[in-house]
Design goal:
It is built from 24 helices and 7 strands. By secondary structure, the chain is mainly α. Among the domains are: 133 residues; 213 residues, Neurolysin, domain 3 (Orthogonal Bundle). The strands form 3 sheets. The protein has a 3-stranded mixed beta sheet, with helices on both faces. The longest helix has 31 residues. The model has no long low-confidence stretch (mean pLDDT 95). The chain binds zinc ion. Zinc ion binds next to helix 14 and helix 16.
């Protein structure tokens, strides 16, 4: 079935209630392992139907933002999902308590149950209203940023459209467009501060209702962290400061030299070459066709996946009127369909979608061999390895997209991957400080950010309005919408760089490790998958030290 053929009917809270109550009662009253299993399988099927209905609304609402029907359905879901979580919570209490848990664990793996325990810890019926309020605040932040209409050079742009000018080879274009952006953000100061104040207070209150001192432990639970905690993450940040920041500073000094500057202003940061960054050749359609060839040649597994995706019409990547911005991969388990959404615009973002989001889609596709959703679904760190490592494993085909500019693309990709780490851990450390001290004033929060800028990005001159006041974090949507998500990208990038390092000498071996990591889907933790695939543990300081060494020696840098 193709995506557009998927039928949609609202799955109302009222129809969910009796079904979930029935399953919960049957599980509690099960008298044999076979009966408990039957209920658990039926529950998983219902959960997949529920998820599919949510996914279809989310995607169709993105595909046409003027379609009132799906906009209303999305609004309904925003209110309904937290209430539905109560029903899942009640079921999961019985699932964890069933005397047949060991039998279920034997068949489906113990990790599912550990993950359910973590999920349970992050939820209580006492916080349902808070979760709804959190959704509303998150939506208002997203809407505020989406509503931006910024005057620049006689035209009006939204934030995404303005982005392109920040990378222009002409420094004056970068400077003025960045100032226009800064001016817009500075006009929203009151709303941005108020929304964040409310979010921090709300999250802290929710965590306290669940018995925590502050939001950090709850934030980790919501990120489904099942194999490391704040101490390991702090150690990782230290390793980035010790081994990656010095190399990043060296690369940035070379970059400044290359583009003819003494030092980098915030608006020079993304410009790696005097004549601009590598641009892909050809039309969006040709880029897509090259992607098909690339995956045909990469491996039998990727060929099979790509052809299936095309047959299922699981890509909507060309930019169209009324399509919402952004790009993502959304897996609809019920239909075994990992849907890729993007807005191709003729920049290297298009190729990145074909490698990054495709990595997500490929991994989801491989996971469908496991029967239960809980075995297929992995934590976010694991998921980002699927995508970020795929970006590197597709390097041998980049000439299809970049022709004579291929080395330039690779250099930028590698440098950006490396310099992302200091930025990423800065976002993470900021959030730890914010939620440890939830009463900080907006002014004090900005001070924290400024101090982190000089710790992690000492090469950057941030003397530009908005940035100079330490407000850059307000443009980082994860800080509002998905607290503690950012470190997942960083850990995944560490793994992806390890895979890249191996692929430089033995591409086949690197691919095998990647596939070994992917094939176990969500049946093991991030750390177990990493070790099991023969990759270095990112929490070991030596791992980042070695990555930095290999990057520094690369002939591309
Ligand atoms: Zn991703």
């Amino acid at each position: 079935m193709t995506f557009s053929q998927i039928p949609y009917e609202r799955l109302t809270y009222e129809t969910l209630v009796p079904q979930m109550q029935d399953l919960t009662e049957r599980l509690a009253g099960a008298v044999s392992a076979a009966e408990a299993r039957e209920v658990y399988v039926a529950y998983d099927k219902l959960a997949q139907q529920f998820d599919a209905a949510i996914a279809v609304v989310y995607i169709r609402n993105h595909l046409d933002t003027t379609d009132k029907f799906y906009e209303d359905e999305q609004a309904y879901n925003d209110e309904m999902i937290p209430r539905a979580m109560e029903l899942l919570h009640a079921f999961n209490i019985k699932l964890l308590a069933t005397p047949f848990r060991a039998d279920l664990e034997r068949e489906f793996g113990a990790l599912i149950f550990k993950n359910v325990e973590i999920e349970q810890r992050a939820f209580s019926s006492a916080i349902v209203e808070d979760l709804q309020e959190e959704n509303r605040l998150d939506t208002s932040y997203t809407k505020l940023l989406a509503s931006a209409q910024i005057e620049y050079n006689g035209e009006t742009y939204n934030l995404a459209q303005l982005d392109a000018f920040h990378l222009d080879a002409d420094r004056e274009v970068r400077r003025c467009s960045t100032l226009a952006r800064a001016e817009w953000f500075n006009k929203q100061t009151v709303e941005l501060d108020e929304t964040f104040d409310k979010l921090v207070a709300l999250r802290t209150a929710m965590a306290q209702k669940l018995g925590h001192d502050n939001y950090i432990a709850m934030g980790y639970d919501r990120q489904e962290r099942n194999c490391y905690g704040p101490a390991e993450v702090a150690k990782f940040r230290d390793a980035v400061a010790a081994h990656i920041v010095p190399l990043a500073a060296e690369l940035k000094a070379k970059q400044a030299q290359r583009i003819g500057l003494d030092s980098l202003k915030i608006y020079d940061d993304g410009v790696l070459f005097p004549d601009g960054n590598a641009k892909p050749l050809g039309t969006p359609e040709e880029i897509l066709a090259n992607g098909r060839q690339m995956y045909r040649e990469l491996s039998a597994e990727t060929d099979e996946w790509m052809e299936a995706m095309i047959a299922k019409d699981a890509f909507d990547v060309l930019a169209k009127k009324n399509k919402a911005g952004g790009g993502f991969c959304y897996t609809i388990h019920e239909y075994k369909l990992p849907f890729i959404y993007a807005n191709f615009n003729g920049t290297s973002d298009d190729v990145e979608t074909l490698t990054h989001e495709a990595g997500h889609s490929f991994a989801a596709w491989r996971s469908f061999k496991y029967p239960m959703t809980g075995q297929r679904e992995y934590s976010y760190d694991t998921a980002e390895v699927h995508s970020m490592a795929m970006e590197f494993l597709t390097w041998p085909w980049m000439h299809l997209f970049y022709g004579a500019q291929t080395d330039k693309f690779k250099q930028a990709h590698l440098e950006n991957a490396l310099t992302f780490l200091p930025y990423g851990v800065m976002v993470d450390e900021f959030q730890h400080i914010i939620y440890e001290q939830p009463k900080l004033s907006p002014q004090e929060r900005n001070e924290v950010w400024r101090a982190l800028e000089s710790k992690y990005r000492p090469w950057l001159d941030i003397d530009v309005p908005f940035y100079a006041e330490g407000r850059r974090w307000q443009a980082q949507s994860h800080i509002y919408s998905r607290p503690f998500y950012y470190i997942d990208y960083c850990l995944a990038q560490a793994n992806a760089l390890s895979i890249w390092a191996e692929s430089q000498t033995d591409h086949k071996a690197a691919w095998r490790k990647y596939l070994a990591f992917v094939e176990l889907a969500g049946t093991q933790t991030f750390i177990d998958l990493t070790r099991g695939a023969g990759l270095s543990d990112p929490f070991e300081t030596a791992t980042l030290e070695k990555v930095a060494e290999i990057v520094a020696k690369s002939k591309l840098i």
